[in-house]
Amino acid sequence: MKINRHYLRLKESYLFSGIAKKIKEYSVKNPDRKIIRLGIGDVTLPLSRSVTDAMREAVSEMSSAETFRGYGEEQGYEFLRQAICGYYGKKGVTLSNDEVFVSDGAKSDLGNILDIFAKDNTVLIPDPVYPVYVDTNIMAGRQIVYMNGNADNGFLPMPDKNTKADIIYLCSPNNPTGAVYSKNQLEEWVCYALAKDAVILFDNAYEAFVRDEDLPSSIYQIDGAKKCAVEIGSLSKTAGFTGTRCGYTVVPQELIREGTALNSLWLRRQTTKFNGVPYIIQRGAEAVFTDEGQRQTREQVDYYLQNADIIAKTLTKLGIWHTGGQNSPYIWLRCPGGMSSWEFFDYLLKTANVAGTPGAGFGANGEGFFRLSAFGNKADVIQAMENFAQGLTGG
Ligand code: PLP
């Protein structure tokens, strides 16, 4: 018996355990100080009324023999896939139900989708990055090539025609940098992927935060993308489903490699290894896409966007370079005074009682940068930014 030795190549992630440890030590030393957490990438507002009403109704259906449901379709109930297609329709993207696969969230599918690709594909991943892309490919033993995000390119790396890649990860709006690709930039990526016969895995988990109409909120708004991209969506940040679990993956029928539709491979994979998302959750997810559900969930996203704006405006006032904060719940800033990510973490905690996330935890290029998240309570965000400004200006 041999283990998968690729797992031994995974770097231990000390990011969140390191943060928790430092916060705990600080709290013990300073019990009277309230620490404001702007580090967490989890939502804080509860599920909207339309979602909980729909789930309650589904629970009562499950309690009656006439309406009870057992195993559902692995790729998701027709009613939810139809609702997702309707949502895409409003973005000007036409999808058919059989191109949409309901999932228990983006993270699972980002890892699972790799099942349908050969092991010897080269993978192109931005740095800094959401760590799941890197770890899932290390687990599979794939060769990873990194592309540099930095202040010069606004943390939006662009394709290099001399780099050959088979699988490309793009995330826009981005975690951790909050940066958003423009239509022109995504057009370049689509052109590159088509030229190289590569496949883009487009992580669209933060699409609901895109409010600028000139910015794309789906890669399929770009001509040709259906021939080269899989899009992975999530209701986690859109509708507060981080604990409820529902997302979707779009695999267009036009996406064909080696004469095979990737859609048929993914369908085969899902029907073999996945038993679908619970009926009750899918009814809750369907409610997100109704007019009332859209209104309610949009209000929640607006709340987080206002927090993001408060953070970004404070940084602008203080002359601190940053990306994100608009069309995104994340703000990515350059640590003032040339501090390293962890030095700034300690500094911010001590001077402002604010905990954020050191950029170095998202890759080598994150060193010297820092992520603040807008998912907190508004009064806390205002207080945090006042403390932050006072700490920096000494006023
Ligand atoms: N993709 C990105 C970029 C994320 O930041 C997250 C969660 O933080 C996910 C995917 C995971 O989303 P889900 O909760 O749907 O698994």
Describe this structure in words.
The structure is a single chain. This protein starts with 14 loop residues before the first helix and ends with a helix. The protein is globular and about 65 Å long. The chain has helices at residues 15-29, 49-62, 78-90, 106-112, 132-139, 183-196, 236-239, 262-273, 279-288, 291-317, 341-352, 378-393, and strands spanning 36-37, 100-103, 122-127, 143-148, 167-171, 199-203, 229-234, 247-250, 256-257, 260-261, 322-324, 330-334, 354-355, 357-358, 369-373. It is of the alpha/beta class and 395 residues long. α2 packs antiparallel against α9, α3 (78-90) packs parallel to α9 and α10 (291-317) runs parallel beside α12. A hairpin with a 2-residue loop joins β9 and β10. The strands form four sheets. Strands 2-8-7-6-5-3-4 form a seven-stranded mixed beta sheet, with helices on both faces. A four-stranded antiparallel beta sheet has the order 11-12-15-14. Strands 1-13 form a two-stranded parallel sheet. The chain contains twelve helices and 15 strands. Pyridoxal-5'-phosphate (PLP) is lined by residues 41, 105-107, 130, 171, 175, 203, 205, 234, 236, 242, 247.
